[in-house]
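Chapter summary example.
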Amino acid sequence: MKPFSLLIKPASADCNLNCSYCFYLEKKSVYPETKIHRMSDEVLEKMISSYLQTSQPQYSFGWQGGEPTLMGLEFFKKGIELQQKHGRPGTVVGNGLQTNATLIDDDMAAHFAKYNYLLGVSLDGPPEIHDHYRKNHLGAGSHAEVMKAICILKKHNVEFNILTLVSKSNVGKSKQVYKYLLDNGFIFHQYIPCVEFDGDGNPFEWSITGREWGEFMCGIFDCWSATDTRKVSIRLFDSILWYLVEGQRNICHIGRNCCQYFVVEYNGDVYPCDFFVDPKLKLGNIMVNTWEELQDSVKYKDFGALKSKWNSECERCACFELCSADCLKHRLPQSTNNPRTISWLCEGWKIFYAHSMKKFKKLAEQIKKDRMLQRQHQPERTRSVRN
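The structure predicted for these 387 residues follows.
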């Protein structure tokens, strides 16, 4: 089998917050038969045991939502227990969890630390920015609760990064957002463009334009490249450098095929991507289908191939090598599901790469030189010869 990871929605779209811009909240309509969605122990064990029976270089479990911590600590303890039960000797297992963090307490943080979870914490910037869209069901902002939870994570030495959604609330404030994150000691960043469309293909009010995205990322790049290239990790920048140094595309939006992971919903239903959890794209269910059947299905292969059905204009673009026509999410909603549509963010990517690529290439060359020097200074390995 080709390697794949799991993106798991144990509480489906259920969440204790009510963020205006959340794309996954509407997925509740896929499962209208019940108001509360929780993964059963039966589905959990089947998912873990069957995945660990496949042949993978490492096994990646990504817990997302909705809000996955709604499942409670015992659920995650059960997950670790099942991974230990079904994992073969030498199995390398990784657990990641994307969270709004507001439900994390000392006990949960201690568990995450003990079993080396990597957390992604959603934080859009200082209170006046973060609370604009990230509110609870009573309409109150969530910033204070998030920062309180981050203190708990730090106390228990839980590894985490910050995921910042770039929306209308912060898109013109890149340097303010970057400074705020650094002032709070956050050195692992991920910036995601907020682009959502209604049923007619029109952008929602919180969606940003391509130009806004490009200018925001130029601002982040300028802050980072000035003094922080060796001390702050920004996922997109790391991936660009990885490609320039290693020749490998390690994040899906710059890849050439969308067959890298499966989404597993609370009831075991499987989809090709969490942006495309749609009954028409349901691949099967883990209680019925094997991973081999799911990976070999025509529906999965056809979906993955859509990524490379880009507009011919893209191939003539200087950005194409690293853009790869962008994520399908930013192409399909603007037309009658035509993957050859130019990305909504196209202008932004052109702005960003024109601004940054010269410096990225210089950094990549320095990384290569540093590696060569390291190899030259490593002591030669010798072997003893017995007469």
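To summarize the output: The longest strand covers residues 159-166.
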